[in-house]
Amino acid sequence: MSNEQRVMSNEQQTISNKTHCSLLIACENWREWIFLIIYTLLILITLPLMPLLLKIYYKNLSFPLSSVCYIISSIAFLAIIGYLAFIRKEYRISVYVWFFVLSFVYALLIFRQKLPAEKFHFFEYGLFSYFSHNAVEKNDIITRLLKFKNSYLIAFILILVISLIDEFIQHLLPNRVGELSDVFLNITSGILGLMIIGLVLRRGER
User: For the whole prediction, is pTM greater than 0.70?
Assistant: First the structure.
């Protein structure tokens, strides 16, 4: 093989590698939006099915559903503590103080919800804040459209919009009740989630 052929072959290989890397990055960026869309659809699709699902649960299981929510919340709390202590090796006391304070407020608000379905719904929007912020942060298509780059504000707007759609659907359903007070609770859960992301999970990346 001549030198020219080798050069051309290397250039083609370089172009192929760059194209492959670009495709991988694009897929990685859009993956977060796919997760967000799937999670949003799960929230909305389960609205009309929730009474039936609860009926099936209570018919077949005797374990209190509220306790299931508390267990899931506790696992999430311990998982974040483990991530901070052993993976990120976070030594700043202020990060743990913020996390404990926000977790206490979050747990208190979950405990104050009377119905198990409301407790899960509150927890759902905390998790939604993570998916929405992740999607906006990894792919800036919305930030380019809206002409500003605050991923937390855009994530908050997504939380507000989905919460309004959520309660509007519940208002239309015969077996559910959509109320503005529930929109406020959903937004509160989302804000607490965003605060945990900004003051705890993403703080070490600044």
Answer: yes
113/19 Cα distance (integer angstroms):
51
Q: Please check the confidence at residue 1 and state whether its pLDDT lies above 60.
A: no
- What's the rounded Cα separation, in Å, for the pair 81 and 59? 36
How many secondary structure helices (H) and strands (E) does the chain include? 7, 0
Residue written as token pair 């370089």: 14
pLDDT tens-place string over residues 82-119: 999 999 999 999 999 999 999 999 999 999 998 888 89
CB-count burial class (<10 Å; 0-12, 13-18, 19+) for 93: exposed
d(CA 10, CA 82): 46
